[in-house]
Records
---
Amino acid sequence: MLIVPLAATPSQTISVTLAGQSCRIAVYQKSTGLFVDLYINDVLAIGGVICLDRVRIVRDAYLGFIGDLGFYDAQGRADPDYTGLGNRFLLSYLETTDLVR
């Protein structure tokens, strides 16, 4: 498992290489929750997925992403919001060996 660094801002996009995949991850807050878009090699793999505590984001191998992503509340079991990104709410990259299917 790897922690993807995020800042406590309501909208951000980061570029990171995960398992050899060139990824762009957009994280943004709306009134209904925190959402994420994932691009692999500049192709949208998933878009507009709501982020919930300890719920995998990608979930399906057919989307072409090796591994998965998920948010984890380091202080309890709340769903993430931008104010706690980077310290309370951590975006984790789960390698295939971390996944139990």
---
Amino acid sequence: MWMRATRWVVAALIGSAMTTIGCGRPIVADEPRPRPLPIVADDTVTHAFDTRLEIRLRDRLELDSFLRDRDIQVEVADGLVRISGQVWTPLEKRRAGELVRHVAGVIDVANQLEVQPPQ
């Protein structure tokens, strides 16, 4: 309890000191401000968050001893994950979906894996 209170007091002191000192330079009214860049919706842009999430998902599937040798593709768009490819059993399909679903950042999973026993 005391440690938490001490942390809050220290944070408040640091914040007030930074405000008093003035860590940023003041904006002069006559100085031209840079124009903000327009926000463009473009489907061809891959977001860094999605790329990181895709890497984590692939690593998660590669570390699973049952799924590492299966042909599974992962696609991520705004936290929505689509897994496709082939697995050997319905249990593997369900396992892959659950592994992907429990990764932080995943909003929803479209499990489009096909079940094809080995020949």
